[in-house]
Amino acid sequence: MMKERMGNFKVKNYYLAEIEHVGDEIKSWSWDIYIAANDEKEYKGKAMAPGKGIEVPWTSLGGQNLLEEMMALCEQQMPKHP
Asked: By three-state DSSP, how is residue 61 classified?
Protein backbone atom coordinates (compact mmCIF):
# COMPACT_ATOMS: atom_id res chain seq x y z
CA MET A 1 0.00 0.00 0.00
CA MET A 2 1.46 3.33 -1.04
CA LYS A 3 1.36 6.08 1.55
CA GLU A 4 -0.12 9.36 0.31
CA ARG A 5 2.05 12.42 1.00
CA MET A 6 0.54 15.22 3.01
CA GLY A 7 2.64 17.93 1.36
CA ASN A 8 1.98 21.43 2.70
CA PHE A 9 -1.44 20.89 4.21
CA LYS A 10 -2.35 22.87 7.32
CA VAL A 11 -5.12 22.01 9.76
CA LYS A 12 -7.88 24.57 9.24
CA ASN A 13 -10.64 23.12 11.43
CA TYR A 14 -10.92 20.87 14.47
CA TYR A 15 -14.23 19.41 15.60
CA LEU A 16 -15.32 17.27 18.51
CA ALA A 17 -18.28 15.34 17.13
CA GLU A 18 -20.67 12.98 18.90
CA ILE A 19 -21.80 10.38 16.36
CA GLU A 20 -24.56 7.86 16.92
CA HIS A 21 -24.71 4.63 14.99
CA VAL A 22 -27.89 2.58 15.00
CA GLY A 23 -27.30 -1.14 14.63
CA ASP A 24 -28.31 -3.93 17.02
CA GLU A 25 -28.09 -1.18 19.63
CA ILE A 26 -27.46 2.56 19.49
CA LYS A 27 -23.80 3.41 19.96
CA SER A 28 -22.62 6.95 20.60
CA TRP A 29 -18.95 7.73 20.12
CA SER A 30 -16.94 10.92 20.43
CA TRP A 31 -14.63 11.68 17.52
CA ASP A 32 -11.82 14.22 17.10
CA ILE A 33 -12.02 15.37 13.49
CA TYR A 34 -9.33 17.41 11.73
CA ILE A 35 -9.74 19.07 8.32
CA ALA A 36 -6.65 20.40 6.55
CA ALA A 37 -6.16 22.33 3.32
CA ASN A 38 -3.28 23.37 1.07
CA ASP A 39 -2.80 26.48 -1.05
CA GLU A 40 -4.55 24.81 -4.01
CA LYS A 41 -7.75 24.42 -1.93
CA GLU A 42 -7.40 20.65 -1.73
CA TYR A 43 -8.82 19.20 1.50
CA LYS A 44 -7.93 16.19 3.63
CA GLY A 45 -9.54 14.91 6.78
CA LYS A 46 -8.46 12.69 9.66
CA ALA A 47 -10.41 11.43 12.67
CA MET A 48 -9.73 9.58 15.90
CA ALA A 49 -12.10 8.01 18.42
CA PRO A 50 -10.40 8.53 21.80
CA GLY A 51 -10.48 5.45 24.00
CA LYS A 52 -11.55 3.23 21.11
CA GLY A 53 -8.22 2.99 19.30
CA ILE A 54 -9.95 3.66 15.97
CA GLU A 55 -8.59 6.11 13.43
CA VAL A 56 -9.63 7.32 9.98
CA PRO A 57 -6.28 8.14 8.31
CA TRP A 58 -5.71 11.30 6.26
CA THR A 59 -8.20 11.04 3.41
CA SER A 60 -8.81 13.33 0.43
CA LEU A 61 -12.13 15.13 0.68
CA GLY A 62 -14.15 16.65 -2.15
CA GLY A 63 -17.72 17.06 -1.01
CA GLN A 64 -19.66 20.25 -0.39
CA ASN A 65 -19.80 19.66 3.37
CA LEU A 66 -16.41 18.43 4.56
CA LEU A 67 -17.53 17.81 8.15
CA GLU A 68 -20.48 15.67 7.02
CA GLU A 69 -18.15 13.74 4.72
CA MET A 70 -15.78 13.04 7.61
CA MET A 71 -18.61 12.09 9.98
CA ALA A 72 -19.86 9.55 7.40
CA LEU A 73 -16.35 8.02 7.23
CA CYS A 74 -16.28 7.82 11.03
CA GLU A 75 -19.68 6.14 11.18
CA GLN A 76 -18.51 3.53 8.65
CA GLN A 77 -15.84 2.45 11.15
CA MET A 78 -18.25 2.08 14.07
CA PRO A 79 -20.06 -1.18 13.19
CA LYS A 80 -16.70 -2.92 12.76
CA HIS A 81 -15.74 -2.36 16.39
CA PRO A 82 -17.53 -3.11 19.66
From this structure: strand
- For residue 77, the SS3 value is helix
pTM beyond cutoff 0.90: no
pLDDT tens digits, one per residue of 45-67? 999 999 898 999 999 999 899 99
**Cβ(58)–Cβ(46) below 8 Å:** yes
The arrangement of strands across the sheet holding 26-37 comes to 10-22, 26-37, 43-49, 54-61
Helix and strand numbers, DSSP H then E, in the chain: 1, 4
Measure CA of the first residue to CA of the last residue in the chain; give whole Å: 27
Residues in the chain: 82
Q: What is the CA radius of gyration of the chain?
A: 13
Alpha carbon distance 47, 58 (integer Å): 8
- Structural element, H or E, at residue 36: strand 26-37
